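Every protein is a chain of amino acids, and every chain bends into a shape of its own. The protein below has been through that process, and both of its lines are reproduced in full.
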Amino acid sequence: MVGRVSVRHELTRSLARVGGHIGYSVRPAYRRRGYATALLRAGLGRACGLGIERALVTCASDNVGSLAVIERCGGVLEGVVDVPGHSPTRRYWVPTA
């Protein structure tokens, strides 16, 4: 397995703050090969099919790789939130179409 993507068609109160509509992960041995971008794009396509026009996607502020993936997919930074016990989290809105 190279990685995984999760699409959440509804946001709980917690996911609306941190987590968002789409989460993805790539095993360390497969990073920096474009898999994360492919996973996020696939997730955005699925979200579009569910009627979600723009998806909330979040990542830790120090996760440089994920920041690049989200921005490459058209993510627009809404802001940064502090999460107790975790790194500050960047919140992006990404168009699904």
